[in-house]
């Protein structure tokens, strides 16, 4: 029986799947199985995986069901003592599994572990630290996780097998299923953190405003689902959670969009955040976003970008949510 089952949901991943698998093969901990769950790909994903001669790598083909269904199908196939997930276009540092397993073995009271994340652009070269994911919260992380998904993405978390037996798998009909899954785990189990960047999250360039409505709807669904089961003593956090979600959406628009539609969406979400949680105006990060919006409104594109670059290093987000991958 392998120590770790690594589950990769894959859909039309011919451009990245081999590199993702190679990052797993390079792990300093070698006792693992890799379960590639092909989710009805129409490209050469299956063919490329089958060309890999490593007996630890297996591929299973299913009709398209979405990333959450693919992860759940991987869980059904998994034989490992621990279960980890990675998306078909992300990468791990070579010590990711070793250090995460070591952290759990050093903390037997914990059943789940996370690390820090860096962004990797499409070129695979341009890398930036994901501000806010450098959390050091351990033990009962549930209240903190309700306020924002500092775990970041589905390529991060590693859990003991019994976690799945208790909380089940991923919610198939929820775009923010990563956050939802981590919340359900955190409600029942303790976490430990590896305070080191180990996940390279590949960001896809493109407009955010076109995706914003869907992201807002799914983010609100994820929070509503979470607060339906949250204990009474945490219900007072709900407006703050909602405000941080809208602040995050505003940040995405300001980072990706420069047209009037994107700025309107950013302004709408910032205003919603303030209405829900007026104290957000006291936070430096929210103040910086408001300044950024004003600069983009008042100055021409090139000039506004130059001014914003001077502020960029000072803007950090304590609760980023990585946008769901389709």
Automatic annotation (TrEMBL):
<dbReference type="InterPro" id="IPR029044">
    <property type="entry name" value="Nucleotide-diphossugar_trans"/>
</dbReference>
<protein>
    <recommendedName>
        <fullName>Glycosyltransferase 2-like prokaryotic type domain-containing protein</fullName>
    </recommendedName>
</protein>
<dbReference type="InterPro" id="IPR019290">
    <property type="entry name" value="GlycosylTrfase-like_prok"/>
</dbReference>
<feature type="domain" description="Glycosyltransferase 2-like prokaryotic type">
    <location>
        <begin position="5"/>
        <end position="249"/>
    </location>
</feature>
<dbReference type="Pfam" id="PF10111">
    <property type="entry name" value="Glyco_tranf_2_2"/>
</dbReference>
<dbReference type="GO" id="GO:0016757">
    <property type="term" value="F:glycosyltransferase activity"/>
</dbReference>
């Amino acid at each position: 029986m392998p120590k770790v089952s690594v589950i990769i949901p894959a859909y039309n991943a011919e451009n990245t799947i081999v590199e993702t698998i190679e990052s797993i093969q390079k792990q300093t901990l070698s006792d693992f199985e890799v379960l590639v769950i092909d989710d009805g790909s129409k490209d050469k994903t299956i063919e490329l995986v089958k060309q890999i001669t490593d007996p630890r790598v297996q591929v299973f083909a299913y009709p398209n069901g979405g990333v959450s269904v693919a992860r759940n199908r991987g869980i059904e196939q998994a034989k490992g003592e621990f279960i980890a997930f990675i998306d078909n276009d992300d990468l791990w540092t070579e010590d990711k599994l070793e250090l995460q397993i070591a952290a759990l073995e050093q903390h037997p009271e914990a059943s789940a572990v996370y690390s820090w994340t860096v962004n990797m652009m499409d070129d695979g070269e341009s890398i930036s630290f994901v501000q806010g994911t450098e959390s050091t919260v351990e033990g009962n992380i549930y209240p903190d996780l309700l306020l924002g998904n500092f775990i970041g993405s589905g390529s991060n978390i590693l859990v003991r097998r019994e976690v799945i037996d208790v909380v089940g798998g991923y919610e198939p009909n929820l775009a923010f299923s990563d956050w939802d899954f981590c919340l359900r785990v955190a409600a029942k189990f303790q976490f430990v953190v590896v305070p080191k960047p180990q996940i390279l999250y590949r960001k896809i360039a493109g407009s955010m405003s076109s995706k914003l409505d869907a992201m807002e709807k799914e983010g609100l669904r994820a929070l509503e689902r979470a607060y339906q089961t949250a204990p009474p003593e945490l219900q007072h956090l709900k407006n703050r959670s909602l405000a941080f979600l809208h602040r995050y959406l505003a940040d995405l628009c300001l980072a990706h969009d420069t047209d009037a539609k994107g700025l309107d969406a950013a302004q709408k979400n910032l205003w919603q955040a303030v209405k829900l949680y007026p104290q957000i105006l006291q936070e430096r990060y929210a103040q910086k976003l408001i300044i950024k919006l004003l600069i983009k409104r008042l100055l021409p594109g090139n000039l506004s970008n130059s001014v914003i670059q001077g502020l960029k290093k000072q803007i950090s987000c304590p609760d980023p949510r990585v946008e769901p991958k389709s």
